[in-house]
Write a structure and sequence with these properties.
Muramoyl-pentapeptide Carboxypeptidase, domain 1, endopeptidase fold (from Nostoc punctiforme), 5 domains, 688 residues, alpha+beta, 6-stranded antiparallel beta sheet, single chain
């Protein structure tokens, strides 16, 4: 019975867990399809890593519009969600603080989940993505058809509470609600969670706001199925025929009965003539006033016809480079982050829309004559933002990668394109600024980037040279070689600093070259070859140097009990201290540098010490041999090995003596063993 109960408990627990995963923890609102429910649905897709499948809209497999539509079929027509919206606006004017809004740019839609974040089904490669709003080239936001948005009250999303007021959640403010003061941060999250009943009381009504916000001025436009999925072979166009105008039928003039003619008198005829003259004068005055009025009226300007220069689907051919020229200009201004390819695709459409929105043009994604004229203007708003140490690519935008790639083209940057703005990138920017007579800061401000991305930007005049102030792998290689040739001491800093410049000057002087703040590619080629001139002080060993001669120095100092470190071949601080102690004990100038005199004395003392130790070893070995011949050998051979282990050294002479002593000891042991066998043999014969 206990086993049955346990199994039942486990089954129920798993069922609840599965339901929690599928449904989520967001409490259901009074509405069937709410903005919070849509956001929870999108978070589920992101956390469960749903697949991107073109045209799909089922649980676990969706495309961009399918992600929205798979939530209770909201959004209207999948291929035209924007036109089905009741309210929309441009992203560059700001996105309202409303969860679950739709986001759109040509060919793609996503869901704004609040706090500046977006979830969208991007591609088979990236799947469901959760990223910053600014990392995508979004053009419009819109309320999704079929989704209810809160007007007043609390909502709960991912365990965080938000309060809506007049249709948007509060940010960076405080409110006293039901006697409790709540504080809302920049993301709209409340510092205190309200009672559970507060979420159920939220008003999702479509009440008209007292002062409605007009987020847009232009009419909503629609897109075809092919605009979403990139099929340019079947563009659908809507045609509108104006209603036929109905002109009024001409009415017959009323007939007038003829009266008998009566000849007027002389007085009457005079009156008639005078009245005719007056009427003529009045008519002439009227004509004159009409003529003056016509002169004063401004001439009507002829209706301008908008000429489309390039739009989606256009492609350059052998005779036209229109698209490439547009793309090149967009690249120079930072709206495109890749060089021109001659095809007007979605990337170019998005770049043009962003350019138009930044420069107060009608946002169409098409390059008309007005947009083209603005593009060519010098007074134009760029899309560059300041880049400096610590900047990095984020989401779909790659400003640092684009900058590094451009600096590689201009021969200022020689390292890997990482998308992170570190010291190597700053060094390349500094060198560019210096060569172009700009303020040298290492910060890629707007003016610097405009100059770098300009088609008139010149390549590094010292391309391939190691230049003072630069950094990177080239400088690391240079420093290592200067250390090998004994012009530079210390550790590699990866930066062409003052110490490196001093070493370069010393090399140039020794090589008969003019002292400058750089080494040309030709000079570097010689430096890395066997033709390179060694430092005049090559044999003076000092801190930072490395080589076999330093390893030999360490070995000899160890034999003299001045050095107890590893035989590393590097002139470290420990070696400096050992040399200083030796120089002091031998009444020499204490410098810590092993010049020729110091090296010779160390070598002589080490050989003398080695000879003395060798003599003692020979005497001890002879004693052991005599004892072995007398049959009384004991553990002295082992004692010899242990007591004199400290005298082992990499010096060739000392190593030879040590090996000889070991050989003699081994021979003595063999004699002892042989004599033992002979004794046993004689004893066996006697027993027979």
């Amino acid at each position: 019975m206990k086993i049955v109960k346990k199994c039942l408990v486990i089954f129920l627990s798993l069922t609840i867990a599965l339901l929690t995963m599928v449904i989520g923890t967001t409490p259901a609102s009074a509405q069937t399809s709410s903005n919070i429910g849509l956001c929870a649905h999108c978070f589920t897709a992101y956390r469960e890593c749903w697949s991107y499948v073109w045209g799909a809209s089922s649980y676990g497999a969706v495309d961009c519009s399918g992600l929205i539509w798979s939530y209770n079929g909201v959004g209207g027509i999948r291929t035209d969600m924007l036109s089905a919206s009741s309210e929309w606006g441009y992203v560059y004017n700001g996105v309202p603080n409303i969860h679950g809004l739709g986001l759109h740019h040509p060919g793609h839609v996503g869901v704004y989940v609040g706090s500046g974040m977006v979830i969208d089904a991007q591609s088979p490669q990236y799947g469901i993505a959760y990223h910053n709003l600014n990392s995508g080239s979004w053009v419009e936001w819109f309320k999704i058809a079929g989704v209810s948005y809160p007007y007043q009250g609390w909502v709960l999303l991912n365990g965080e509470s938000f309060y809506y007021e007049n249709g948007e959640y509060l940010v960076n403010t405080s409110r006293e609600l039901d006697g409790v003061v709540y504080t809302f941060d920049g993301a709209g999250v409340s510092n205190i969670a309200p009672p559970d009943s507060a979420y159920e009381a939220t008003d999702y009504s479509d009440a008209i706001r007292e002062q409605p916000v007009n987020y847009y001025e232009e009419p909503v436009y629609t897109e075809t199925y092919n605009d979403y999925y990139g099929d340019t072979n079947a563009q659908q166009e809507a045609s509108y025929e104006p209603e036929p105008s109905i002109e009024p039928e001409p009415q017959p003039e009323p007939s007038v009965a003829e009266e008998p003619s009566v000849e007027p008198s002389k007085e009457e005829s005079k009156k008639e003539e005078s009245s005719k003259e007056e009427s003529k004068k009045e008519e002439s005055k009227k004509e004159e006033s009409k003529a003056e009025a016509k002169k004063e009226e401004p001439e009507k300007e002829p209706e301008t016809i908008i000429e489309i220069i390039a739009e989606y689907g256009y492609e350059d051919d052998e005779t036209s480079k229109t698209v490439s020229s547009i793309q090149t200009r967009l690249y120079e201004l930072g709206y495109l982050q890749e060089k021109a390819d001659g095809y007007y695709g979605e990337t170019t459409v998005n770049a043009v829309k962003l350019f138009q929105s930044r420069n107060d043009l009608e946002v169409t994604g098409q390059v008309d004559d007005k947009t083209n004229k603005t593009l060519k203007s010098n007074k134009v708003e760029s899309n560059f933002s300041i880049l400096k140490n610590g900047s990095f690519d984020e989401g779909l935008t790659i400003p640092v990668t684009a900058l590094q790639t451009r600096l590689v083209e201009l021969k200022y940057y020689y390292d890997d394109v990482t998308g992170f703005y570190g010291e190597l990138t700053a060094s390349a920017v500094r060198q560019f600024q210096k060569d172009n007579e700009m303020k040298v800061t290492g910060i890629a401000d707007v003016d610097t980037q405009l100059s770098i991305f300009s088609s008139k930007a010149k390549k590094n005049p010292n391309a391939g040279s190691a230049v003072y102030g630069s950094s990177g792998a080239m400088i690391t290689k240079l420093q290592k070689r200067l250390i090998e040739l004994r012009y530079l001491s210390g550790i590699v800093s990866e930066k062409f600093d003052d110490a490196t410049l001093e070493a370069v000057h010393a090399y140039q002087k020794a090589s008969g070259l003019k002292e400058t703040d750089l080494l040309t590619p030709e000079q570097l080629e010689v430096l890395y070859s066997d033709k390179a001139v060694r430092s005049p002080d090559y044999d003076v060993l000092k801190y930072g140097y490395a080589g076999d001669d330093i390893a030999q120095l360490q070995s000899r100092l160890a034999a003299l009990k001045y050095y107890d470190g590893k035989t590393s071949g590097v002139y470290s601080n420990t070696v400096v201290a050992a040399v200083e102690k030796f120089q002091s004990d031998n009444d020499m100038d204490v410098t810590g540098n092993a010049d020729e005199a110091t090296q010779n004395l160390i070598k002589a003392e080490a050989q003398r010490q080695t000879t003395h130790v060798g003599e003692e070893l020979i005497l001890k070995t002879a004693t052991i041999t005599d004892d072995a011949l007398a049959g009384i050998a004991d553990s002295r051979s082992i004692e010899l090995s242990l007591n004199d282990q400290a005298t082992a050294d990499t010096d060739p002479v000392q190593s030879t003596i040590t090996l000889s002593a070991v050989f003699v000891g081994a021979s003595a042991l063999m004699i002892i063993f042989t004599k033992g066998l002979k004794r046993k043999s004689k004893a066996a014969q006697k027993n027979k």
